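Internal tracking record. Fields below are filled automatically when a chain is submitted to the structure queue. Please do not edit lines marked as system-generated. If the sequence contains nonstandard residues, flag them in the REMARKS field before resubmitting.
Queue: standard
Priority: normal
Entity type: single polypeptide chain
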Amino acid sequence: MRRAKGVVVSVVLAVLAFAPAASASSWLPSGQDATWTYRWTDSVYSAAPTTEKVTVKSRKGNTFTLEWTTVDQGNSEDAVASAGTVTFQTTNAGIENTDWSSTAPPGEFPVLCSQAASCGNALTSTLYNVIWGSRRPVLQEPLLAGLSWESTGGARGDVASSNTYLGTEKITVPAFPSPVTAAKVRSRITQAGALGDPYGSGLRTIWWVYGVGPVKVEFQHAGGASAPVTTSVLESTNLTPAAPPTDADYFPFRKGLKLTYRWTNSKHMKEAAVERFTIDTVVNNTARFKVAHVSGPIRVAGTYGFSKRLDGVTNLWGTTQSATLVKFPGLGPRSAAPAKRNRFVTPFDLMNFGINPILGAYPTAKDGWPAATRGTDFATYGVTGKTEVVGLRRVKVPGGSFTAVVVRSTLTQKGFPFGSGTRTCWFAPGKGLVKLTFAHRDGSVSTVELVK
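SYSTEM-GENERATED OUTPUT FOLLOWS
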């Protein structure tokens, strides 16, 4: 995808001064000394292989620019000659593409716009194939089992993609002749109205290796059995593959998912309240849960909103209406008027109470984070304390047996023993919360279990 303005028509090579590489691994590293060499072909328009070298041109904050060139890469006269840049930004929701520029594609390639003049689209490089139809985001994160997302691309936002994470698999490429673990993402890409239809549409698969980036890209263009196939593989790199983070989804956002819980309190509510949660809306990795009364002493209806980003699963809001004769002890904070203070009327109230995020994006034993001491959460709850990931444990509840990640929080709501204590949550892959215990400092214990 080539910008319509500022197209490079000649290549000027410069000597770059490299800084030490960033130590943190990611799905697309940006250390200043990182290099990748790709080799790609198009089965119809460029059967002669093209080798291009990719380096990091610049980086500032969470934005970095990669540049490529085919100069001095040992290419034949029939290979595509090109040079260009692609700019990326790492965000809390994943990797985005913000800009690009390059030499014009050869005239024999399909025109990927409604007119040839000032066309800002091209597919004549590995990086262009990576961002085609999926600029924002290029790769959504956290990258978890079952994840799918919609994206757009093209110079005028005229290319759309439906993207699905298919899980991990072992792959070998020239850069890594011994198998490495890659995350496999498949995209159905559509473009309409281009002179070169149907070249801009088709099925693209990218294999991402953590700590390295894309190691293979395959784009099966639309058009039947004889349609072109563009294939790019990583020939060499100075980066080392790293073990990817867990892709288990411990708090799934799946529209239509239903979860039924029963909960009691050893002192204040011995008759179980049974409530059902249903996910009715999922947009941009943000979900809305609706809660409804099933049986027991609390009649409740309401909604809760959660987002899932690289900083974890965060509760955005909770709105309920309820009626009950159960008399729970009061909750704070003292700074809020009594009528504005929190109440526990659902299992999610117990789970959300005090500390965001509820769960890390890629939870690992010994991870931890403190409660905020200012901002919206502190104003709402007035809670101090911390959360830590204990690790994986087996748990059995009426809704089944699970290997769950255990998360424990210590909470202090000054002046309110019922809002203080130790909360332990069990989150199971593909289900979410399956058990919760809250040992309150008034001596009572709230227990939540998944029923179905």
